[in-house]
Amino acid sequence: MKNAINPRIRRQGPFLVDDLKKAPTGIAGLDRITGGGLPCGLTTLIEGGPGSGKTVLALQTIVNGARLFNEPGIFVAFEERSTRLIANASRLGWDLKALQRKKLFFLDAHVRSDLVIAGGFDFAGMLAILAAKADEMGAKRIVFDAVDVVLTLLNDPQIEQREIYRLNEWLLERDMTSMITCKRTEAGTILEPLGFMQFMVDCSVILRHDVVQSVSQRSLRVLKYRGSAFEENESPFLIGRNGLDVADTWLLDRNSHPVSNKRVSSGVRRLDSVLGGGYFEGSSVLITGAPGTAKSTLGGAFAQAACRYGYRTLVVSYDMGSSQYVRNLASVNIRLDRFETNGMLQVASSRTVVASAETHLMHIKSLAESHRARCVVIDPASALSQMGNALTASSVAERLVDWAKASGITLLCTSLLDRPASELESTPLQISTLADTWIHLSYQVRAGERNRGLSVIKSRGTAHSNQVRELILESKGVTLADAYAAGGEVLMGTLRWEREREARIVQSEGKAVLMQKEIMLRAAEAELEGRIESLQREAEAKRIERKALTLNSSVRQTANELDRLRMRELRGSDAPTPKRR
């Protein structure tokens, strides 16, 4: 879709991109923010305070140009000597000596502090040398690092502006992708009289390095980008083993998240039954509760079940070391050591106070990608909102969930709550609104006992019970007890056991009474059956007697008839002789 104001800008997914030719930096987050990289053939100003990463950004861009995009480059160093730059770059895994042979050239323009300037001064001689070198190696990129260092030695604002304009014109004539780094004051301005450079360049990038409550916070912001769409908000970044890693602060298009109907076991069989078979694959799960309610235990149970299923799993623990985490879970028959041994599981531990929430997010993503994790457990995610991270933690949590969904990773986060259940509406990171399944663990203290209760607050796409079940931790494993309600409340622990015992006794007594009644009824039934059998025999005898009586009557009648006939015969009667039967 074209933009009505600038037809060169169009929408690609959730972001605006344009047709301006760009030189990729090779820094994924920065290339996304700028829609593809820095303006090709134009000048970019990189400004920031001391230690903000200006030189690293410029050097990484020119190194990636030579290494990844076959664009030779020149690095002009006004502040540090090239030997130190090369030594520092080796710690980031960049082999600059190999690139120096054909694709990289370092020019030391370092000015000694005791230099005395006599007569006129300009960049003409240096630019002539650079032009010859650029033609020789076919350079496409060039960096002027800390140009303000040499200009401030002139102590003449007019000469400084003249030389900056001379440099800019030379760059435009050479059609090289160029970067100029300069210092920025704590007040947020470039040292005068170099402030006009922001208006002169085509792209301006500001780097910040602040300390908030003793926690280091680095951020990057594109101030301007002529003719191009770009992300205007600040983006956190860190300087790691491979250079700058700029965070993706944008939120992914949630309509593009993969959706699966497959289930991943929670690691607790009866909890799987409550959830209709377990957690949805690729979903986000939140387990909240007070300290000691077994949040880590449920996280470990899920990790074990995922590894058994064949899913590579990452556990990041902020409460304890990895060895301690594995040892403690073994007490409830959650055995993670074997999965660590075969490589299915990686347990990493860290302290939240040593870095910002943004740094931890990028660390988690890096660990998950290197481990090729299908399931990730963060225990507890609420630790990210601790010292110095109150303003950024919610954004980090939201991007953590979005990243996991976009990657098809089943994410389980635990969160510490310091409020009673009656006030439970959200979590410190506001992650509860994003989670697909929210399980809350609580304590019930009665009759001198503290018992753990589990309730499913929500589980999208799954019918689930609204009852509180007792969570039982035993040496043989973790399970849930049946919900037992009496007198309008759920009973747990000894109270539940006593009520269940009473119910069993009543049930046993009822069974005994029923058995006794059954015996009496069987006896009565047997007696009736005996009486019925006796009456049947008596009735049969009567039937036989009746038949005999009938037969005797018939015999007598026949005999009488024969007697009458014989009598007639003796008397000489002429009556006919009856036929014999």
Describe this structure in words.
- With 581 residues, the chain is of the alpha/beta class.
- The chain folds into three domains: 238 residues, P-loop containing nucleotide triphosphate hydrolases (Rossmann fold), CATH 3.40.50; 227 residues, P-loop containing nucleotide triphosphate hydrolases (Rossmann fold); 27 residues, no CATH class.
- 38% of the residues lie in helices and 24% in strands.
- The chain contains 15 helices and 26 strands.
- The strands form six sheets. A nine-stranded mixed β-sheet has the order 7-6-8-9-5-10-11-12-13, sandwiched between helices. Strands 18-17-19-20-16-21-22-23-24 form a nine-stranded mixed β-sheet, with helices on both faces.
- Helix 13 packs parallel to helix 14.
- It is elongated.
- The chain starts with 8 loop residues before the first strand and ends in an 11-residue tail after the last helix.
Give me some keywords for this one.
15 helices, single chain, alpha/beta, 3 domains, 581 residues, Rossmann fold, disordered N terminus
**DSSP strand (E) fraction?**
15-25%
CATH architecture annotation name of the largest domain: 3-Layer(aba) Sandwich
CATH H-level superfamily of the largest domain: P-loop containing nucleotide triphosphate hydrolases
Beta-strand segment tally: 26
| Oligomer status | single chain
Overall pLDDT metric? 80
Inertia-based shape = elongated
Q: What is the terminal separation in angstroms?
A: 121 Å
- Evaluate the radius of gyration: 45 Å
Strand order of the largest sheet: 7-6-8-9-5-10-11-12-13
* CATH domain class of the largest domain: Alpha Beta
Number of continuous helical runs: 15
Number of domain units: 3
Low-confidence stretches: 1-11
The fold-level CATH name of the largest domain is Rossmann fold
The helical percent reads: 25-40%
| Structural class category | alpha/beta
Q: What composes the largest sheet?
A: 9 strands, mixed
